[in-house]
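Quick review question:
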């Protein structure tokens, strides 16, 4: 049985990143979940590719939901959040944006950033 990783219900744990397909989708994910790490990325971005396994590990091993936004496919969404470079990582806790970092972060730093809001 194959599951659609883009739209599990709010109660289901997500062990892999959710791919966002617009502002309404992102708003729903952020409002339905406690802690959300949003990775604004581009397929052509080298640092984004380096960050991808880290983001997948975070999705699999933490209570945070990980959402990925392709900036080329969602330019207006990226602009709405002030994304000027990729990768840009946003953390939402209880529906509010609490962190924003541009550039790839090491796994331990990203994990500690998320754990601030999941404990």
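Suggested answer, residue by residue:
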């Amino acid at each position: 049985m194959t599951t659609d990783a883009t739209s599990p219900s709010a109660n289901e744990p997500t062990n892999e990143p959710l791919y966002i397909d617009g502002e309404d989708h992102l708003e729903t994910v952020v409002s339905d979940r406690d802690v959300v790490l949003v990775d604004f990325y581009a397929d052509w971005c080298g640092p984004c590719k380096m960050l991808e396994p880290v983001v997948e590990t975070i999705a699999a091993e933490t209570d945070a939901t990980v959402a990925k936004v392709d900036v080329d496919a969602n330019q207006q969404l990226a602009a709405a959040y002030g994304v000027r470079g990729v990768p840009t990582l946003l953390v939402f806790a209880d529906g509010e944006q609490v962190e924003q970092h541009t550039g790839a972060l090491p796994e331990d730093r990203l994990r500690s950033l998320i754990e601030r809001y999941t404990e």
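Why it works: Strands lie at 18-19, 35-41, 65-70, 88-93, 96-102. Confidence is low (pLDDT under 50) at residues 1-11.
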